[in-house]
Amino acid sequence: MHDHAAGEGGEPVGAEAYNGAMDAFELNVTAVSNRDLKTQEFDRQVELIKPHMAWNPATWTWHARLSGSRAEHATEVLNTLFEAARLYGTAVTVHPAPTDGG
Questions:
Q1: The CATH classification of domain 28-96, taken from the options 3.30.70, 3.40.50, 3.30.420, 1.10.12
Q2: Is the pLDDT at 96 greater than 70, yes or no?
Q3: 3 vs 12, 16, 64, 74, 86, CA distance in Å?
Q4: What is the mean pLDDT of residues 86-100?
Q5: What is the pLDDT of residue 2?
Q6: Spatial CA neighbour of 66 closest among 27, 92, 38
Q7: What is the 3-state secondary structure (H, E, C) of the chain?
Q8: What CA–CA distance (Å, rounded) separates 57 from 48?
Q9: Tens digit of pLDDT for each residue in 26-48?
Q10: Kindly report the CA angle at 33 between 29 and 38, in degrees rounded to 5?
Q11: 85: pLDDT confidence band, cut at 50, 70 and 90?
Q12: Measured between alpha carbons, how far is residue 24 from residues 6, 17, 28, 31 in Å?
């Protein structure tokens, strides 16, 4: 019997393959602030998002790159952003980050 599960070609299967996939993914996340917010609402939105993302005041846009190797952090950031979207109308987009291989 083997200690680790492997497919026919020796590649990992099951939990090992899943964990490898989690480590491999990276996401580019963008959040665009709602320009119609009152000053007080905008300030609350900033308090919510600032700990997680970089702010570009020229475009009213927040940016972050999230990694599957830090899945709990990625989950926390995404949950925060979707809460900002719900509360303040922040527009959130998530795209796979380009890989080194193409």
A1: 3.30.70
A2: yes
A3: 11, 12, 38, 31, 46
A4: 91
A5: 44
A6: 27
A7: CCCCCECCCCCECCHHHHHHHHHHCEEEEEEECCCCCCHHHHHHHHHHHCCCCEEECCCCEEEEEEEHHHHHHHHHHHHHHHHHHHHHCCEEEEEECCCCCC
A8: 16
A9: 999 999 999 999 999 999 999 99
A10: 155
A11: very high
A12: 19, 11, 14, 23
Calpha distance 98→88 (Å, rounded): 29
pLDDT band at residue 57, thresholds of 50, 70 and 90? very high
Could you tell me the residue ranges of all domains in the chain?
28-96
pLDDT for position 1: 45
